[in-house]
Design brief:
The protein is mainly α. It has a domain at 26-83. It contains three helices and no strands. It has helices at 2-47, 52-60, 62-83. It is elongated, with a radius of gyration of 20 Å.
Length: 84
Protein backbone atom coordinates (compact mmCIF):
# COMPACT_ATOMS: atom_id res chain seq x y z
CA UNK A 1 0.00 0.00 0.00
CA UNK A 2 2.73 2.50 0.93
CA UNK A 3 4.87 1.49 -2.06
CA UNK A 4 2.07 2.09 -4.58
CA UNK A 5 1.35 5.50 -3.00
CA UNK A 6 5.03 6.47 -3.26
CA UNK A 7 5.23 5.31 -6.88
CA UNK A 8 2.11 7.22 -7.87
CA UNK A 9 3.39 10.34 -6.09
CA UNK A 10 6.76 10.13 -7.80
CA UNK A 11 5.13 9.50 -11.16
CA UNK A 12 2.89 12.55 -10.75
CA UNK A 13 5.85 14.72 -9.78
CA UNK A 14 7.92 13.52 -12.74
CA UNK A 15 5.06 14.07 -15.18
CA UNK A 16 4.40 17.55 -13.78
CA UNK A 17 8.05 18.58 -14.06
CA UNK A 18 8.36 17.26 -17.61
CA UNK A 19 5.20 19.08 -18.72
CA UNK A 20 6.26 22.25 -16.90
CA UNK A 21 9.70 22.16 -18.49
CA UNK A 22 8.28 21.59 -21.95
CA UNK A 23 5.75 24.41 -21.64
CA UNK A 24 8.43 26.71 -20.25
CA UNK A 25 10.69 25.92 -23.19
CA UNK A 26 7.89 26.58 -25.66
CA UNK A 27 7.16 29.92 -23.96
CA UNK A 28 10.82 30.98 -24.17
CA UNK A 29 11.07 30.04 -27.86
CA UNK A 30 7.84 31.92 -28.60
CA UNK A 31 9.16 34.96 -26.72
CA UNK A 32 12.40 34.96 -28.71
CA UNK A 33 10.49 34.58 -31.98
CA UNK A 34 8.12 37.46 -31.15
CA UNK A 35 10.96 39.74 -30.03
CA UNK A 36 12.83 39.12 -33.28
CA UNK A 37 9.64 39.70 -35.29
CA UNK A 38 8.99 42.95 -33.40
CA UNK A 39 12.52 44.19 -33.98
CA UNK A 40 12.52 43.38 -37.68
CA UNK A 41 9.09 44.89 -38.31
CA UNK A 42 9.86 48.07 -36.36
CA UNK A 43 13.14 48.50 -38.27
CA UNK A 44 11.24 48.19 -41.54
CA UNK A 45 8.65 50.75 -40.35
CA UNK A 46 11.37 53.20 -39.31
CA UNK A 47 13.03 52.93 -42.70
CA UNK A 48 9.78 54.08 -44.34
CA UNK A 49 9.43 51.09 -46.67
CA UNK A 50 6.77 49.23 -44.67
CA UNK A 51 3.26 48.43 -45.80
CA UNK A 52 0.19 49.09 -43.67
CA UNK A 53 0.09 45.42 -42.69
CA UNK A 54 3.65 45.54 -41.41
CA UNK A 55 2.96 48.74 -39.49
CA UNK A 56 -0.03 47.08 -37.83
CA UNK A 57 2.04 43.99 -37.03
CA UNK A 58 4.75 46.15 -35.51
CA UNK A 59 2.22 47.82 -33.20
CA UNK A 60 0.26 44.77 -32.10
CA UNK A 61 3.02 42.17 -31.72
CA UNK A 62 3.77 43.72 -28.30
CA UNK A 63 0.56 42.31 -26.81
CA UNK A 64 1.73 38.67 -26.58
CA UNK A 65 5.28 39.70 -25.63
CA UNK A 66 4.28 41.16 -22.26
CA UNK A 67 2.64 37.99 -20.85
CA UNK A 68 5.48 35.86 -22.21
CA UNK A 69 7.99 38.15 -20.48
CA UNK A 70 6.11 37.57 -17.23
CA UNK A 71 6.26 33.80 -17.79
CA UNK A 72 9.99 34.09 -18.48
CA UNK A 73 10.51 36.04 -15.24
CA UNK A 74 8.62 33.36 -13.29
CA UNK A 75 10.71 30.60 -14.90
CA UNK A 76 13.96 32.38 -14.01
CA UNK A 77 12.74 33.04 -10.45
CA UNK A 78 11.85 29.37 -9.95
CA UNK A 79 15.22 28.23 -11.30
CA UNK A 80 17.06 30.66 -9.01
CA UNK A 81 14.93 29.51 -6.06
CA UNK A 82 15.84 25.87 -6.82
CA UNK A 83 19.53 26.72 -6.76
CA UNK A 84 19.29 28.51 -3.45
Amino acid sequence: MIISFAISTISSAVVASVIGGTLGGIAVVALIFLLVMKELSSAEVESGRASKTLETLSRYVVMPIIPLLLVFVVIVAVKVWEVL
